[in-house]
């Protein structure tokens, strides 16, 4: 009996040894795959870039986005992550924006969102859920400490889904932003699972086109939304979490004979309208009345923006504005379905949703999650140059010819370290990214010591890989820098 027991043990041990040896061989440099350890960023850059140019696959072992949590000094963190530290145009300087971001989890996802929307002339207020873990709060604090124009809300809420606390979180940040020294023109509210589909300049141009009007998409309440403000709702907290429950108690009529509208919680508001919301009695009374309604952030903004005479109001507006690309579970006929999964009726995007997002005119998309899948695994092929070509046609072509002064300006914008906002989208792990920049722009080929295009590309292209679910900030970045 003992003999067979020893045989079984020896066989098991031998099997484990063989498996480990075989697995290690698959990761050895002699094979087509290499383990890229995030502890050595320089090694990652060199290896990933060489593999990309030689059309070899790269095995991404860990997330390589450096974080202040890893004791990286702020200066190094900004450089390594290619933050934009200087404004990219006079137009953007003259039209600073403000952002409100409400988060409670997934620091890595928030970190990518913040990097994508950050510009030095803007202002950023981040509301961290009071219930969030201490480690998460500290991570956010460390990140924002690297930026003079970004801060955590001075007052935080314990946010309950569909409760008044979600709206109050936005309002807390708005109070802080009004007191900031940044002369912002519009404020945009976001959550940690948003991601921009446009550059900062494109967002500015879109908002300037609104000519001082607030963007609060919405309509009169459809049948399914009427009970949200018709009956009293109560917040409940249990071991499994917090939630809002409907009662059979009828609510009183809205204050000041306001007509309640139903719309999106995500809006773009002028500074004048924000001051109205914070100080006008109609807004204050509506906020008080809304405290026992369901998801008040989906009627508060849109209702006030329909009041005639209010700064930037649009009494006759509807579902317009193109602020968010969202796939709702009850609207699959219009968007073709969700390739990820639904949470609270909203699609958490998968790789198969990329084509739909590429074609979206919206400024932002919602919702994303940080996942361990990269773009070169996508079932939807995305051409590396799709966004470059679109922007080049708009910025560089004059009557079919490239205007040299414009070409020079765009080269300046793209090539210096960090000046890549909005161009870091849907990039495949291939040499096409660098080629697109060189061949389309015909920019200077770099320092003389680099004799060939391939050497120049190896020296200039940093391929940043992160284990995300969308865009270059979450997939692969192709950055060209001096």
From TrEMBL:
A Pfam entry, by short name: Branch
Superkingdom of origin: Eukaryota
InterPro entries: Glyco_trans_14
Membrane-topology annotation of the record: Single-pass type II membrane protein
GO MF, one example: acetylglucosaminyltransferase activity
Keywords: Glycoprotein, Glycosyltransferase, Membrane, Signal-anchor, Transferase, Transmembrane, Transmembrane helix
CC per GO annotation: Golgi membrane
GO term, biological process aspect, one: transforming growth factor beta receptor signaling pathway
This protein's record includes keyword Nucleotide-binding: no
Keyword Transmembrane helix attributed: yes
Pathway(s): Protein modification; protein glycosylation
Subcellular location: Golgi apparatus membrane
Similarity section: Belongs to the glycosyltransferase 14 family.
Protein name per UniProt: Glucosaminyl (N-acetyl) transferase 2 (I blood group)
